[in-house]
Structures are given as structure tokens and as C-alpha cells.
Amino acid sequence: MSTASRATSLSTPDAVAAARRGTPSPAGPPPSAQKKRLNRRENLAGYGFLAPWLIGFFALTVGPMAISLYLAFTRYNLFTDPVWVGLDNFERLFADPNYIQSVTITLVYVLVGTPIKLAAALAIAMLLNYRDRGAAFFRSAFYAPSLIGASVSVAIVWRAMFSAEGPVDSGLSLFGIRLGSWVGNVDLVVPMLIILAVWQFGAPMVIFLAGLKQVPHELYEAAQMDGAGPMRKFLSVTLPMLSPVIFFNLLLETINAFQIFASAFIISNGSGGPGGQTNYYTVYLYKRAFADLQMGYASAMAWVLLVVVAIIAFVLFRTSKSWVHYGGDTK
Amino acid sequence: MTTSGDITVAGPATPEREGRTGNRRGRINTIVWFVVLGALTLLVLYPLIWLIFSTFKPSSEFGSNSGLLPESPTLQNYVKVAEGIGGTPLWRFFANSLLIATLAVVGTLISSAMAAYAFGRIRFRGVSLYFAAMIGTLLLPFHVLIIPQYILFQKLDLVDTYVPLVIGKFLAIEAFFVFLMVQFIRNLPREMDEAARIDGAGHIRIFVSIILPLIRPALVTSAIFSFIWTWNDFLGPLLYVTSPEKYPLPIALRLYNDATSTSDYGATVAVSMLALVPILLFFIVFQRFLVAGVATQGLKG
């Protein structure tokens, strides 16, 4: 992300100011010594303020990651010492039909749900951007599901809404569509959870809307003068100008989607059913680690996911150079 | 209703402002706009509205009455639910959730603001490296951490306490908040802290008396998000809290869901509703802060 480089560039004025304060006192110690002392003080202050984060970073992130990597090559049940088994866990993973199914439904959920969610978010953001007055109310109303969507309460409501003779079933039967319960249906439980994901379109929508507000009006006027229609304006002005925001939403929403847990867990009462169709990656990992106490196997699962997410992020960052346009001046 | 023309000059630029092609068409467009968005709002909020009305349905109506309105409205669900479940009263779960969420908010605010000040205002060795690492944790799937963290807390004999749930918050583990505050601090003018420094103020003074008051909006946004996320968190307490009298609401809800879902749907639905009330209240009061927080997060990424 461009912010990392901005970190250094923005902190330079500090150094300039420090240097400036160093020079005008010819009577004091030589500037280099004073600078050195100043540097030491800054280092001390920096590490002091960063101490909580540093402790957390090493004790709760880096350290555990290393342990997790080690465990991925062991058999470990929490009570006896881990036994080194080499690549055994990984070989078992790819031979495990439950794992393959878990990967498949998770990928379907991510690859179908995220684009639909983002498309809905963008479409509704553009609709909201049409007018200023009244838009704030709708924006807030649409945002509400994003706050509560991952809660157990909503999972319970969702299950009730999509049960046999529930509101969705009865609503659809008015149109002659009789699907019965979505919850117990092997083919419908994934769509049901995708709908739950799309329902939370509000968070990316708010980000899109803020991005749309920053597109310079002159660009649309220029396009208008060139005889561009609404579609042309969307493709040649809106999309390119919005591409940094699209990139951000795509990255975050994709990574978030991989982490679905509470809703799938609650809807299936922790079983991953029907037919393993709610056995999402996190649910399966949880079951393997904490119900079966196969910590090594589950750690191997975690690392496969980490590598996949890293590859996705890397590909997104790499390809972003060709489709993300940061205007002449990023700010 | 807006009259066309003057708004176009005064208001901020939006691409297809109404009324450019004439008053009448503009007005029709406006009406269509309100109708479409109004219908969409109903659709989006329907699950919530349905939940609210359903809490007044007797359990026997679930499965037969899928409509909004209860046929024979009752407060029985709430009465029953107040008694609690398995010998633990309902208020206890609320109190537990409130305690955990409050600790999380306090910890997050202190540790994240400190880290953000270091990243945003202090030039020390390694700062850009650590900043990059912090951004990296923003994208890290939590899966790689849950197993080793569980082992760590188990070895330290901290399972079935709230320590595993809140210790990370005191250590700025949630990079989202650090990032939000860094962005805020970077946009503050430097003149004030430079002036203070010339007057001899150290970093602690500058942080406490200049930066903290100025980043109040970011602190409020972080506090609300931190509260809501902790309140909703399911996996954390599922792993670490084992005694029912220590359960926070989401785990207690699971108890209702498992124990009573076939026989007593009304109770489950009522607790679901009650668990959402604090979040919805927060949302109604602070929605502008929340929406603004989300928007800046995305734009400056």
C-alpha cells in the first residue's frame, strides 16, 4: 500500500525542523553531537510509545505464527509432546475429501459472494450519489446490516427467515416457487449464506460513495461535451477514478469472506451440515483443532490458507498496477 | 424539495444532479429516486423488522405464521427469557458482555493511540519497517493465530478467564484502529506540536495535551467499533470461556439456540433481539461517526 512510503516521506519535516533548530546556535555543542542526542531521545520515545504494540506484535502475532508453522509439521493433541511428522499433515489434507469439500464451498462463497456484494455496493452508492438531500438517511439504513451481520443474533434470524414456511419460503411461494427449507437443503444453504454476505453491502457502499464524491465534476462535463452517454461516462470516468477504492474493497472483502465462521456455525449448530455445505474453512479448522484435538493438522490447514491469501493479495497488488489509477496527485 | 439551478451552483458537485433538464423531469426523477430507495430500505431492513415483531409471537406461531404481525401478540417471550437459562439469569450474560466490551474499548484506545502517535509523529529507527508490518497484520487471516494462542493461554492457565479475550486489545493487536488513528494524526497540522516542542514539551506532553484532544473523532469511532466487534465476537469466547456463568451473550444465545430451538422459538428470538439492542442504540446515536470512519478508512488506504 502507498501508505508505507508515505510514512517516511511525511516524517521528514520533523528531521528538517530538528536540523534547523540545531544549526542557529553556534555556541552550543557541534550539530552532529546534538543530532545524535536528539536521535537517541527520539528512538527512546518511539519505542516507548510503540511498546504495547511491539509486545503484542511479537508475543501474539509473530511468535504464534512461528509456533503454528512448526506445529503444521507435527502431530499434536495438546496433552502429549508434539511429534515431528514432516509433510504428513499436508499429504493427508489433500487426500481428505472433507477438506476438499470445505475448500470448494469456501471458494464458491468467496468468488461468487464478494463480486455480487461489491457490485451491489457500487450500484447503490451511485444511486445514492445522485442526490445529496435524503441520501444520508438511506446510507445509514443500508450500513446497519454490516455492523450486525456477523452476530449470532443475525444468524438465528437468518435461519428462521429461510426455514420451511418461513418468510422467504412463503414469499416465494406467492410466485409459485416452492423451495421449502433452505437451511436443510444441500443446494440452497450456500446461496443462503451468500445472500447473508450480500446483505452486508453497506460497508463497501459507504467507501464507494465517499470515493464517488471525490471524482471531479469537470471530468463528467468534459465527457458530456465529447458526447459521452451514461454508460460511456461510467466506463471512462467513474470506474477509472474509482479504481483505488475498488481495489481496497476487493482486497478487504475477499480476505474477510474467507473468515466466515459464526453464521455457518450457528446455522448448522456447529455440525457443518447439511451434507458438509456449511463446513467452511474456519468451521472445519475449528472442528479439527478443538473437537478432534488435531492441532498439527489444523495448523497445516491454517498455513495453506495463509499462503493462498498471500498469493491472492500479491496477485491483486501486482495486477493493480495496470488497472488502478492513482490520479496525478494521490491525495 | 429542491428547486433546480441554484443548488447546482451552491452544492458540492455531483455528476447527474436533478433538474438540469428542467424542473418537471427533475421532480419526477426525485420521486422515483425516493420510491426506489425507500423500497430497497424496506427490503434491507426487513429481517430486523421481522425479528422485532416476531419477539411478540407466541412460540406456537413459529412455523405457521411467517408474516410480520403476530396473530395473538404476547410479552410472554420476554418474561420467560428474563429468568435466564440453566440457572444463570439473563442479566448476567449482559453484564459479562458489557465487562468484556468495556475492557476491550479501554485497552484498544490506550494502546492504539500510543502506537499511532509513534507511527505518525516520532521519527525513530525502524519506524517504516514496523509500519509496514502493522499494515501486513491488517491482511493476516486470524486462522494461523488461534491454535498457538490457545496453546499459549492454556499453558498459562488462563482458559476460562477473560484475559485471552482482552489482553490483545491492550497490546494494539487490532491494526485497523492503529491505522485509523495514524491517518488522523498525519492530517493534523504540525505547527502546534512543533511550537510545543520549542517550549520544551516532550513527547508525552504533546501526546496527552495536543494530539489526544485533536484526534477525538478517531477515538470515538474506534471506541464504538471496538465495542460492537467485541460485543458480537463469537469465536473468542467459544474458545476461552467454559463456565456458563461467565458466558457473554453470543455464547449464551447459542445455548438458547441449541436447547430450545425446536420447542421454544419465541425465547430464542427474544434473546437475539435483546442482544442487538445495545448495538442498534449505538448505531442510532453515533451513525455519523461510524459512517465517516468507514469512509476515511477506504479512501486513504
* Rg measurement of chain B, Å: 25 Å
* General form of chain A: flat
Major sheet size, sense and barrel closure of chain B: none
Radius of gyration of chain A: 26 Å
At CATH level 2, the architecture of the largest domain in chain B is Orthogonal Bundle
**Amino- and carboxy-terminal Cα gap of chain B:** 36 Å
Secondary-structure class of chain B: mainly alpha
Taking the sheet with the most strands of chain A, its summary is: 2 strands, antiparallel
- Percent in strands of chain A: under 5%
- Categorize the overall geometry of chain B: flat
- CATH homologous superfamily descriptor of the largest domain in chain B: MetI-like
**How much helicity do the residues of chain A have?**
over 70%
Taking pLDDT < 50 over at least 5 consecutive residues as the criterion, the unreliable ranges of chain B are: 1-19
Poorly predicted runs of chain A are 1-28
Rounded mean pLDDT of chain B is 86
CATH class descriptor of the largest domain in chain A: Mainly Alpha
Output the helix-strand order of chain A: HHEEHHHHHHHHHHHH
Number of discrete domains of chain B: 2
CATH fold-level topology of the largest domain in chain A: MetI-like fold
Total strands of chain A: 2
